[in-house]
Structure formats: C-alpha cells, structure tokens
Design a protein that fits this description.
This protein is mainly alpha-helical. It is 77% helix and 0% strand.
Length: 443
C-alpha cells in the first residue's frame, strides 16, 4: 500500500502536523545546524587568520581580499552540478563527501606561503564546499511544506550567528595561545584545529541522515504518509517543473540579482568584521573575538523571531526588506565610528542582525515556486549567482582599503547594494505565499 493511502492530500490537521513536524525537527535539524556552523567557521575563519597572516606572509590587504573572495569562483562553477547530485544520489552520501573534502582543504590552508598558494587554497575550498548550503535548502523542501519552511530556514541559518558567537572567541583564543606552538604560527593552528569538526561531522551525516521521508524508519508509516501527502499537494501549485525552465526564467535570475546585493553585505561582515573592530584601535585578538559575539547574538534573536512571525503571517516581502534597510544603516554607522569602538560595535549589531535576518527570510521566496529537479537547479543557480557577491565584496573592499587606507568607501558601496536589493524585492517579489491551489502565476 502506498504511503499516501493513509491520508487525503493536504489534509493534515494543525495539531497533528505540529507534533509530527516537531518530531522531524528534533531528528534532522540539529545535524543540519551543526553542519552550517562548521561550514561558516571554515569559510570565514580567514578573517581572523588575517590578523597575523598578512604580517607573517607579507600579503597586502588587496591580496587578502582577492583570496577571501576567490572562494566563490570555485563555489559558483560547481554549485549547480553539486546540488543536482544531492537530488540524484541523496543528501546522506553527497553532503558527507562535501564536508570531508572541505575539511581536508581547510586544514591544508595552513601550508600556504605565497599569494598564488593562498588563492589556490581558497579556490579549492570553494569547489569542495559547493552545493552544501543550497543542498540543505533543497533538503528542507523534502521534509517541510512551504508554510513551515521559513522557520526551518531561519533555524538552519541560525548556524551563521552561532558560528560567529563560537568562532570569534575560539579563533581569537587559538591565535593568541597557540602562536609558535611546535613551530607553527597561530593562524596555522587556526586552520588545522578548526578543520577537525568537519571531518567528524561528515561521518555523522553518513550514518544518521535519511535522504527522504519515505526512508525515515523513526517515523511510523502513517506519519510518513502525512508528510508526503502534504508536500505532494503543495507541489501541484509550483510554477517551474523542469530544469530548462529555471535557466530561462527572468524571475529566477532576478532572485539571483537580489541575493547578490544581500551577499555583498553578508561577506563584508564575514571577511571584514574583525578589521572593522581593530581599526577603532583595539589590538587584542581575543578581545576582538569576544566583541564579535555581540552582533551575532543580536542576529540570532532577530532571525528566529522573524522566521516565526513570517510563517504565522505568511508574509515574505517586508520580512526581507526591513532587515536589509537596517543593515544598510548599520554599515553607514560603521563608517562614522573612527576610534569609537562602542559605535562601531553598535553599527555592526545593526548590520549583522539585518543581513542575517534578511538572508534567512529570503529563501522562503524562491522555494515557494520551485519543485523537484527545478528546485535543485533553481536554488543552486540563485545561490551561486548571488554568491558572486561573496567574491566581489571582499575583493572590492580589499582594493579600496589598500588604496584609500580605509574601509569607509567600501562600506558605503555595500550599504547601497542592500538598499538596491530591497527595491527589487518590493517591486518584483510576492508578499504572500502562494496557496496550495494550482496557479498559472509567474514571478
């Protein structure tokens, strides 16, 4: 008997659904959140390594900016095929491969000595990690209907601020206390030690993550039927049904452009936050790490509240626009801080909370219209197009920092990008989730 024989399509009561999805949340979300924490730390720990690395290796700010951003060229090139592989072979095997590979590459970054070696290591890290985040977004579409997904995306992306809360002090501690231990610099120990969790997590995912609802033996057959029927009923309302339609859809490309502007802000934070704090006059790496906890803690609170509120109201557009505008204001405040560390940290609170909240809310928009192979390709296409902002943001800020001596002009540019994305969202994105009824509407 098929699973859907147990329940009529789309007829899951709220009370039954809440209990069922709570069970799913406690089973799979801890693994996904920990994965995102590890991924984000390994991606941006170079921002702390920079505090020692540039002096030891005689790199310029421009070399650092290009190296930090070149990660996203490898990410861009391999993200769509990697995400399609998630859909084809299953998240358990493919995400395990992704995590173990990036852990190895991250550890080997400790061996770089020249700018070209640094560029190569960062490029290979992007290739290795390609497909992880969009693979997780795709994975959520297999387990949660759209009206529950914003809170799940927010929970997944809670890994971003939690990574900042954990990674900042941890990186600062390693830099300060492991410097010159066994003949290695503090920044080398940072790459080596922070790569270990990725290797462990890869094994955990292979052993404990189920690819689909139908494989989840920890759910009863009736529970599996309820989830499958609700997701299948929702699938009928989605616009794109083929991979080709994704690549020819102006709406999908526009989502990529919107995401590009938001990622300009995200990686201005990810790769330059310790530098923004240090340029106020604070030199101690561990204290800088502790101060980075403050903006990420605020971001964690804001994004979780926004995710719940967005799902409750089923409103999406303003839940992205408002955080983007707040982030832009925060970047502008950072340019006015000078030697005022509290003002710089307050500006970073607004910037980090706005960026992270906006990004977590953004993904509810494209996933509401994409399904099947189209979801795999569309999510990856939007993510990799937007993540080119992750290349341009640190590269441009590094260039401007080298030739002007200040991050201010770069931060004004990033603020403008956040506002531009808000304008595009207001103009083009739907304010409400589509209903479960079939529709011919196109974004």
């Amino acid at each position: 008997m098929s699973l859907t024989a147990y329940i009529a399509p789309g007829k899951v009561s709220d009370r039954t659904g809440d209990a069922l999805y709570r069970k799913i949340i406690f089973r799979i979300m801890p693994i996904l959140v920990i994965g995102y924490i590890v991924a984000y730390i390994d991606r941006v720990n170079v921002s702390f390594a920079k505090l020692q690395m540039l002096g030891d290796l005689k790199f310029s700010e421009s070399v650092y900016g290009v190296g930090a951003g070149i990660f996203f060229l490898g990410y861009f090139a391999f993200e769509v095929p990697s995400n399609i592989m998630v859909h084809k072979v299953g998240a358990r095997l493919w995400i395990c491969r992704v995590i173990v590979t990036w852990g190895i590459v991250s550890a080997l970054t400790a061996l770089v000595r020249t700018p070209m070696q640094f560029y190569t290591a960062r490029l290979l890290l992007g290739v290795a990690e390609a497909g992880f985040f969009p693979g997780m977004i795709l994975y959520l579409t297999y387990w949660f209907p759209a009206h529950r997904r914003a809170a799940m995306v927010a929970l997944l992306m809670a890994g971003n601020p939690v990574a900042g809360i954990i990674g900042g002090p941890l990186s600062g501690f390693i830099l300060q206390h492991f410097a010159h231990a066994r003949g290695l610099a503090g920044w080398q120990w940072l790459f080596l030690l922070e790569a270990i969790p990725a290797l462990i997590l890869g094994v955990v995912i292979f052993l404990f993550l189920d690819n689909r609802v139908v494989e989840a033996k920890w759910l009863s057959e009736k529970e599996r039927a309820e989830v499958v029927s609700e997701i299948e009923a929702e699938a009928a309302s989605k616009t794109h049904v083929s991979v080709r339609s994704v690549f020819t859809s102006p709406g999908v490309w526009m989502f990529g452009l919107i995401f590009f502007g938001m990622e300009m802000g995200s990686y201005a934070i990810g790769f330059w936050q310790p530098t923004i704090i240090r340029q106020t006059g604070l030199k101690d790496a561990f204290k800088i790490g502790l101060l980075t906890m403050v903006p990420y803690t605020a971001a964690l609170i804001c994004m979780m509240f926004a995710g719940r509120h967005s799902d409750k109201t089923r409103e999406r557009r303003w839940h992205v626009i408002v955080p983007n505008v707040v982030a832009a204001l925060g970047f502008v405040l950072c340019t006015q801080a000078g030697s005022n560390t509290p003002l710089a940290v307050f500006g970073l609170v607004l910037a980090v909370a706005g960026v992270i909240t906006g990004l977590s809310m953004f993904w509810a928009l494209p996933t509401s219209i994409l399904g099947g192979n189209a979801a795999a390709a569309g999510i990856a296409l939007i993510n990799c197009t937007g993540n080119l902002g992750g290349f341009f943001s640190p590269a441009i800020l590094g260039y401007l920092k080298t030739y002007t001596g200040s991050l201010n002009s770069g931060l004004f540019l990033v603020a403008a990008c956040m506002v531009a994305s808000s304008v595009l969202i207001f103009t083009l994105a739907p304010a409400k989730l589509p209903t479960l009824q079939p529709t011919e509407a196109e974004i």
